[in-house]
Give the backbone structure.
Amino acid sequence: MVRNTDILELINNIKGKRVAVVGIGVNNIPLIRFLVKRGANVTAFDQKAAKDLGIIYNDLKQIGITFSLGKNYLNKLTQKIIFKSPGIPFSIPEIQNAMADGAFITSEIEVFMTLCPCAVIGVTGSDGKTTTSTIIAKMLEDAGQKVWLGGNIGKPLIDELENISPNDKVVLELSSFQLQNCRVSPRVAVVTNISPNHLDHHADMQEYVDAKKNIFLHQDEMGILVTNSDNAITNNFRGHGALRKFSRFSEVESGCYLKDGDIHFKDEMGDFVAMQVADIKIPGAHNVENFMAAIAAVADFAGLKSMKEVAQTFNGVPHRIEFVREFKAIKFYNDSIATTPSRTMAGLKAFDKKVILIAGGYDKKIPFDDFGKAACENVKHLHLLGVTADKIAAAVGDSVTITKYDNLKEATIGAAETAADGDIVLLSPACASYDMFRNFEERGNYYKMVVDELR
């Protein structure tokens, strides 16, 4: 992996420097401890008040940092070294002013990748990041590797640096927020797909795509880039090292492809059948793509036996077309991770019949035109809630029965009441959860609770 010398020099000389950590969230709490341990003079900035931070405030205060909190928390952002939380846009005036004033802005993930002593496999994309990252980690573990899984999934790994050895493997799920302006790329970079997403955060689609590209732009000739040949955007990506593609529809020069139910891996050594589609336990064509991406990513580190073993035993990740319960011959599935229309469209195709769909939520400014067409083909009854309910209804039109609700509990009960024996009820919102829940996990867990309480 190419190490960023500017970041390396900054960390090696951080002792006594005034630094700002903007955002006291999951990623930045271990970062603050990391910086204090190295002698930095840290000020933590967050729009929450001390009482809202609770025990986190007390814990961090005890290690000697100062705070700038509340409504105007960024007014005193004068430090020349700033560690920014991924969720805070670069476009806000205070960050723009700091950049214009010559501040060096970096992040926990950029520091971690610079200092990490072992090979890093990074995974990004609009859909499938978590599942693909998990599959990669499990394949490596089955092959006897010591694996650390983190980034946008699980816990930040910066406080594990002392425990990671050069022979280990790190797998990072990387969001566009984490990759934006990132100057370090992992040894192996996987891009599952790209479709419109997070347009409430990014200035436009091009900025979103450019953020994703940082996962491979800083690789050297030893790097490996894995891309989706079937996706119009990712098919055009080129890095500085080896290029491997995966495709369900055509043979590739190097990488993975599907032919007559067999998943092939092809490189300069030959063409091998890695597994059959029938070996993959979790349903859906999108999961076939996730496995192909994983195979191409780990081919240098794990054997075909380990790849097939994971395919046959992996039950999937919670909130990804997760079977919840069968009630009165109705099967309920939780796909709360589907925070984009494209992800929900993929989930709909995992079933061989029309489903009763619960959708809607926070508006990320993504168009629903294609989703509307897919709903007409794959949805029996559409139950809508959230800010986007009217927007989705307009895209679907009157060819599908639509019912709207004020909250998820009402929508779930309503979906159950309209279902008949043999039907499938699927929560797959096509939207983020922030209008009603803190994250998709909380939304999915609430849905499962309501389903479990059905009588």
The chain has three domains: 5-106, 110-313, 322-452. The CA atoms of residues 361 and 436 lie 8 Å apart. The domain at 110-313 is CATH 3.40.1190.10 (UDP-N-acetylmuramoyl-L-alanine:D-glutamate ligase). The mean pLDDT is 95.
